[in-house]
Write a structure and sequence with these properties.
Strand content: under 5%
Distance between the termini: 56 Å
Number of helices: 22
Order of helices and strands: HHHHHHHHHHHHHHHHHHHHHH
């Protein structure tokens, strides 16, 4: 559950290094579509390119949608509507799919056909067939039509394959974490080396290091956007806080490597806040963190909001301390779950919080058990009675 929540928190969580991480995700170093066209006012007409509009109409594209989203492409002197549509059709995209792709990613029509064909070859290195490739392009057209650094992309794809990552995982990276393919190959190799070294220095086994690394990358490819200095800084800080090497390995496993996106200052703020709220010793706090590693990840405002939400529902600090995993839940989820439990007469504030916490699937399973128990008769009227004669 922690991992799913963390992806959302990347948008609103810790300051410092996490802010830099967010900027890397939202504003990549490379300029999208730079290899496709040169965008200058000198080359742009004051009127829409009539031929471009007519060709888009020919492929049933909603011109109004393009005008609202990225109307500038309609003013470009040089476009490749038919050529790009043909590439998509050759891959097996039908008319509706072609129209949808061009509507959602109109920049595609200013990409050179040569660059797009090269991109197709790159993505086919990890796709089972053209049908799978078309499906990915339909879902993530902007990732596909970002056709810069293609030689670097190819080297990184080959590197990830050599590492042992499955093609289905690499294709997921291409669509949702495309920034890592624009990293220089040397940077990615250095980060992999640092991660392996860190794992072994923390007491991980040589025999398990590859499995650990591949799992970490599969769960969080963005870790490659970090710097080696940032990773070392975070590890040293945690050791200074009294966490053993084994503890840190546990945290890395549970937080899927997101721990490295934090900086010491943000972690310290969360630790100080939690220690003050729960009135606990350093040892007790460490045990809380190991039970709920997200305490380190959540910013103070997020922790405060969630604790206040629980208190408003009548839940005590002692209950939260006993089951800190409830802090993984947003106030809205807490309210919904308490309402459902109350419908069965289950008073959450009078008991423990185990039935409140957990993933959606875990909660529904626990709720079902309570519901079944609630409706179960005190005795089975058809069961034979054991009567001693």
């Amino acid at each position: 559950m922690v991992a799913g929540m963390l992806w959302k928190l990347l948008i609103r969580s810790q300051p410092c290094r996490l802010c830099s991480f967010r900027k890397m995700l939202s504003a990549p170093k490379y300029r999208p579509f730079l290899a496709c066209f040169t965008y200058t006012n000198d080359h742009q007409s004051n009127k829409e390119n009539k031929r471009t509009v007519e060709k888009l109409y020919k492929f049933s594209v909603d011109i109004g949608k393009i005008r609202r989203l990225k109307g500038w492409v309609l003013f470009e002197d040089e476009t490749y509507v038919e050529e790009i549509a043909n590439v998509l059709q050759q891959l097996g995209a039908n008319e509706a799919a072609v129209a949808s792709i061009l509507e959602r990613c109109p920049e595609a029509i200013v990409c050179s056909p040569t660059a797009v064909n090269t991109q197709r070859e790159l993505w086919q290195l990890v796709c089972k067939n053209e049908q799978e490739l078309v499906k990915l392009i339909e879902q993530f057209p902007e990732s596909f039509f970002t056709v810069t650094d293609q030689e670097t992309q190819k080297l990184n794809i080959q590197f990830f394959q050599e590492l042992g990552l499955k093609n289905v995982v690499i294709s997921r990276f291409l669509t949702t974490a495309s920034n890592i393919f624009h990293n220089p190959i040397e940077k990615n190799k250095q980060m992999i080396s640092i991660l392996q070294e860190s794992y072994l220095n923390l007491g991980g086994s040589e025999a398990n290091v590859k499995v650990w690394l591949l799992k970490l990358l599969s769960q969080n490819p963005f870790i490659l956007l970090n710097s080696s200095a940032a990773i070392k800084e975070t590890l040293e800080f945690l050791q200074e806080q009294g966490f053993t090497n084994f503890d840190i390995l546990q945290l890395l496993s549970k937080l899927k490597g997101f721990l490295f996106h934090l900086c010491p200052r943000s972690i310290q703020n969360s630790i100080s806040f939690s220690k003050n709220v729960f009135k606990c010793t350093d040892h007790d706090l460490k045990q809380l963190v190991l039970k709920c590693p997200a305490i380190l990840y959540y910013s103070v405002p997020v922790l405060e909001e969630r604790i206040q939400g629980l208190l408003k529902e009548g839940i005590s600090i002692a209950q939260i301390k006993e089951t800190p995993m409830v802090l993984e839940l947003t106030p809205q989820i807490v309210q919904y779950r308490i309402k459902k439990l109350n419908s069965l007469g289950y008073r959450i504030k009078d008991g423990h919080l185990v039935n409140l916490s957990g993933t959606k699937k875990e909660f529904e399973a626990n709720f079902g058990k309570i519901q079944a128990k609630k409706g179960r008769p005190l005795f089975n009227p058809v069961a034979p009675l054991n009567i001693e004669e």
